[in-house]
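Mods, move this if it's the wrong board.
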Amino acid sequence: MTLKACKKEEKMDRGFQKKFKFEGSINVLTQMMVDPAATEKRSGAKNLPLRPGEILDVIQFTNQEQILCRNSQRRYGYVPRAVMLPL
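Not the wrong board. Structure tokens:
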């Protein structure tokens, strides 16, 4: 990884921590897959756009209804638990 790419990732991580009021280091708890049959596409400022069959990194289990996740493009957002499948 180049220095420029590393700095870009650090900037994105700081932006995530500020937007979601997340304190501490960002650790991936597990990976989960978006249900291939899922049709729910919730949009919003803090919701992560979903693609069926996509593998997401779980950052935090926030509550009974949603999970804080990161996709392969290092974008962060909330995802409904109902559309997630364990790997």
